[in-house]
Structure formats: structure tokens, C-alpha cells
Amino acid sequence: MIYLALVDVHSLLLNGQVEQATAIAEAYHNLPLFLYSDQFSFVALRAALQGYREKYGSAARVDYVAEMDRVAVGDSLSRVTVPGVT
Q1: How many C-beta atoms lie closer than 10 Å to residue 62's C-beta?
Q2: 14-72 pLDDT, tens digit each
Q3: pLDDT given for residue 84 in this prediction
Q4: Cβ 23 vs Cβ 56: under 8 Å
Q5: Where are the domains of the chain?
Q6: Residue 82 predicted with pLDDT over 80
Q7: CB atoms within 10 A of CB 45
Q8: Which residues lie closer than 8 Å to 29 by C-beta, 6 or more apart?
Q9: Binning pLDDT at 50, 70 and 90, where does residue 6 land?
Q10: Cα(76)–Cα(59) distance, rounded to whole angstroms?
Q11: For the chain, N or C: smaller number of CB within 10 Å?
Q12: How many angstroms separate the Cα of 38 from the Cα of each of 31, 34, 35, 42, 45?
């Protein structure tokens, strides 16, 4: 999921969509730091991703909540194509 977020942020920045790229970065920036600590919360991460989904709706290139839910039940990430990235 971090890979998807980084690719999405990169693509958004290339297209001048700084506010949307920042919103994704805000949702994910502490994930590597806290993932294996007592401070990490899947509930908090999902809430941040849900906030992104609600704000950007159909403008979001990736449905991060759906991806998180897919991983949570043991499925692999979907083969998401981020528009504008080859």
C-alpha cells in the first residue's frame, strides 16, 4: 500500500495536484515509523484513509480504504493502475 501511495503522490505532484498529494502523504507519513510499535493503530490509519476518500471521492486515483480492507482479509493488493504513470 505504501508503494501505491508513493506512486500516486508522485503522479499527482507531476500533474500539479499538490493539495491532493499532500493529503495522501499525511495519511501515510507515520506508517513506517509506527507500524511495529505500540502506538500504531489500524483504526486510525483507516480513518485517515476514509477522510481522504470522502474529500476526494471520484478524483482519488486509488481507493485506499478498499485496498486496506482487501489486505486485512488476506487478499493481495489489486492490480491498480495509477493514471499518468507508466
Answers
A1: 21
A2: 999 999 999 999 999 888 888 888 888 888 888 999 999 999 988 888 899 988 888 77
A3: 56
A4: yes
A5: 2-72
A6: no
A7: 20
A8: none
A9: very high
A10: 24
A11: C
A12: 12, 8, 8, 11, 14
